[in-house]
TrEMBL record:
It comes from Tunturiibacter lichenicola. GO terms for biological process: alpha-glucan catabolic process; trehalose biosynthetic process. The keyword Manganese does not apply. Residues 19-772 form the Glycosyl hydrolase family 13 catalytic domain. It is an enzyme of class 5 (isomerase). It holds the Pfam family Alpha-amylase. This is (1->4)-alpha-D-glucan 1-alpha-D-glucosylmutase. GO terms for molecular function: (1,4)-alpha-D-glucan 1-alpha-D-glucosylmutase activity. The keyword Magnesium does not apply. InterPro entries: GH, GH13_cat_dom, Trehalose_TreY. Its EC number is 5.4.99.15.
Amino acid sequence: MMLRIPGSTYRLQLHKDFTFDDAAKIADYLHELGISHVYSSPYLQAAPGSMHGYDVVDHQKVNEELGGAAAHERFCKRLGEAGLGQVLDIVPNHMSLGKENRFWWDVLENGTSSRYASFFDIDWQPQEERLRDKVLVPILGDQYGRVLQAGGIKVVRRGIKFQVECSGQSLPVSPQSLPVILSRAAEYAKSDTLSFLAASFGRLPAPEYVDRRTILARHRDKVVLFTLLERLCAEEPEIFDAMDRAMADLNENLDAVDDFLNQQNYRLAYWKTADQQLSYRRFFDVNTLIGLRVEREYVFEETHALVLDWLKRGVLDGVRVDHPDGLRDPKEYFKRLRERAPDAWVIGEKILEPGEFLREDWPIEGTSGYDFLNVVSGVLVAPEGMMELSSVYADFTEQPTDFHAIAHEKKINVSQEALGSDVNRLTSIFVEICEANRDRRDYTRAEVRRAIREVAACFSIYRTYVVPEREEITEEDREYITQAAECAKEKRQDIDGGLFDFLRDVLTMEVKGKLESEFLLRFQQFTGPVMAKGVEDTAFYCFNRLTGMNEVGSDPGRNGLSVEEFHSYCGKMQETHPCTMTTLSTHDTKRSDDVRARLAVLSEVPGKFGAAIQRWSRMNNAFRARKPGVDPLPDRNTEYFFYQTLIGAWPLPMDRAQAYMLKAMREAKQQTTWVANNKEFEDALSLFIEFTYSYAPFQRELQQFVERILEAGRVNSLAQTLLKYTAPGVPDLYQGTEIWDLSLVDPDNRRPVDYALRQRLLYELKQMNGGDAAAQVMARAEEGLPKMWTIHKALQLRRERPKSFGAEADYVPLMVDGAKHDHVIAYLRGEDVVTVAPRLTVKLDGAWKDTVVTLPEGRWRNRLTGAIVEGGEVEVKGLLKDFPVALLAREEVGGDR
């Protein structure tokens, strides 16, 4: 069966302010630009007010805030009319909690006897006795007793049902807890029938681990009882008053409320307890996103039915799978998805570390493109300049500049704090394993906990994929596990080395058993969050040598990549995953591609950058807050980060700078955090930014510095853009980035896109077809036309010659000779498309000298300038004379092929 591979994709972020109908309006524009498929953010029913869609509450419905099913149908129809296909982002790993999630509501109401208890990854038998057969619900704003004493927890009636209300949220009550209210109400109403119903609710089977038949029978009995109660209230309306009186009695007695709450299938708690006591797997450290057991076939079917139907009917041509590393068995998940959608284009948001490649036995087309992004970023920086930037950074900040040491420290910290409950769960399992082995039984819980944290922190990748059930382990995974264990043993010599060896043996299946398998599978689900929260969301905001290198899946401690390494990566992709996604900006990138492109220039001028920030720091020194005996605020690392942010995103309005810096510093967790705001630091930072924005001498110098690197940054942008559209893979364009876009991390990169402007620019661009078209485009560089021109022309060529870019096309590096050969990336796609892109153009200083690229024989037209060249040795200077990059297409005699 033929796979439905997109030619290109355009990512749209759908939400209540940009709905299906809004998206439908730009369908023709996207087709005219050259896009083949819209790539939509998740749009199944999400939590109210969701701005991203990853917090799904109902897999069987289309998000009502986007317009619901009717608007979705209009949207899909409009895409079809415009000649566009569609790819959807789906979220199998987790769901959002709340009353809108009927699965979760049922679990809170019925506990382990819920029909959906097995849908979620809940530990019903944790180490703490008080949490057994209960779910911790950490939503209170203070200690439970204080909130209760202050009247912050109330029982309320909603029709014939009762709920607990606290912290602005509602929770169902267990049917078995109703007798305390209904029996009192029966006395007030003098109703024997209500008294009977009260007793009957009390006789429902207690929630426990039971077979599905018993669970369904209990559910049936519960429904019958509520039906009888509803009928009674309809016949005798005074019953409502009696229930309200009984409920008021309950709420007036704190001990009675406490007893009532203890009868529930959940335990209300202060939100801060979640990090250490939570009894369910989350998406990273987000309490409101609970892990799904999608490895169970009935859970898969329930949560994928609508999407699979869309794929079957051709409404969708493919899916992007969010966070597959959270799944218990990603390979098996993809296998099941592939069986149900054999012709769909499937990519996974798999984050690969440098040197790591997607598993070739996964039945998917590739990743969501971060690996490509980081390879491109790496080839656009100067290695020797990166080394000099290390000195610049160390001199300015006077803090450690070993990224790997910082990353390890932050991974340990996040394991101790935000992910503490996950560590506790793993510790409990491993302690049981040790207890069953007489040679290991003396390891204490504290030792085991420390060892687990250390091994997880020593992993150099997000996770391994060992499968005990199938006894699958690759040599690659065995090596990763062994390296992590040896690293941990070296770092923690205060812990018996045998414990690390035992952990290694369990993780490599040298020691087997039911508990061992459970530990192994859960540990593999744990290391990804450790990497994500410790490195992506913490270390990347602490180590700031060149912030443009701090992207998901990157190693900011590396000093860049050579042209040969870039070619090697692309050749590998064409061989193994030619239809993977390639991207430069996403909804999750820390900085847009244009910001990174400009920041890359700093690696070519490290000395000038270092001198500038030292001068700026002296200029702005008076704006730092001071107290006796305390270092001035903001600290030097924050100041360094601030200057790079301004350089990369200038002109940056002050309100955006303020919001971004606050988020970045809370993520860094060095001076302030999301959990514990340091008001003194945050106020000092805000004032510092305000003063620097109003200080004309600094603003003038900043503007001058940016102007000096602006052109080189734009050349980098065009180079990486052309690479994305011609390298192996399916290029994705993030909304709005078809022209210059200087956005920072979300929510900054999710601001409204001015499509009227982009439509006008594309229209004007398409009128520029004469011999001087490139000159006209370059004359309007400030408007972003060179970027849109490059994208449009590349997409036109991809549409015209799909075989040159497809799975069967070749990727062949071209020979570049001459003094500046290392400043050129050149390659052939298929037999008739050539890309020539410059790199490190500041160091080049415009002098290509004798540098030539050898083209295959034939006549070639530069699709960006219209110029004609003949095959053989061609001067790079001439190729790039009229436009910064070159896209050549071979012509047959008599014109285009």
